[in-house]
């Protein structure tokens, strides 16, 4: 198998999709399976050394996700690279410019095509006041994926949601997410880390990790923590790790609420692992996740999790077994969950133990072996009969 991977986000972009695809490419190379990635140039601030395994193209920020890039492909450059590489399978990971190039090339040259579905973009639209585009977006996504012999999704809930929309369930497969326990673990010098932010070791630390963006509902987390600090624990501290378009707005909200916060900005490894392990609880209110990598990472670091009862997170978190689930957008419910974790030491210990046990079973090696087998099978399947002809066919 010779795999050409087309994606509009790739390392060094900082998001779950980019990191997952980078791990997938590394796994294939370790298995001596040729893989060539077609991706946008990263933002100037995140430049990385060139790689012989990645073909880069000019790009500009994507309006719904400024940390990602929309590629401006050079057709001549791309065609030469593909003719030299001679792919036997094309994998499209995003439904935008680079993904369109992959679909077009696969269709034109009769190369087997598979896709991975990573993001509920339709759920983002309402947060950006463009919900009127939902029907148009779904028509486009259905058109984009129609030639794919297999569509890999991050969770069973995502699969069921797409099947309910009429997508062919026989072509849908779960590609779950794993964890590298050598990187994410409970070991940390808590006192030293907290001292860096002028936090006492005996203070109750609530952590949020993720983008500072509307679709993540960070404002709900701040409102919930504000109520928790007023009514339950005045010495609690809310630490937020991440960056994004809502950063200043959220800082202003925290100032209005008068709560004790630390906005860390973008936090990479190994510091991110240390904050996971040092925190008393992860508060993650995002209702739009197809999986929610940060939840599994927190579990692996021995931190109990409180999440929105929505999206792919529910496939990782079993309520009151290895975490707590709350009604999306309900700050009172998240506050009550914080109070539970703070006051009930036995509950906290159970959530930690079961979360750790769950994370230890999520091996990337096993997951990628299963994915590789599924892709090899897909390459041998008959082509999908498309109802709509692709451009350039």
Secondary-structure-based class equals alpha/beta
| CATH architectural category of the largest domain | 3-Layer(aba) Sandwich
Count the beta strands: 15
Report the sheet with the most strands, covering strand number, pairing sense and barrel closure. Answer: 7 strands, parallel
Termini distance?
24 Å
Give the full name of the CATH homologous superfamily of the largest domain: Glycogen Phosphorylase B
Parts with pLDDT < 50 across at least 5 consecutive residues: 387-393
Assembly of the depicted chains = single chain
Strand content: 15-25%
H/E element string? EHEEEEHEHEHHEHEHEHEHEHEHEEHHH
**Widest sheet, order of strands:** 3-2-1-6-7-8-9
CATH fold-level topology of the largest domain: Rossmann fold
Q: Which CATH class of the largest domain applies here?
A: Alpha Beta
Categorize the overall geometry: elongated
Question: What is the overall number of helices?
Answer: 14
The value of Rg in angstroms is: 22 Å
State the share of residues found in helices, binned by percent.
Answer: 40-55%
**Domain count:** 2
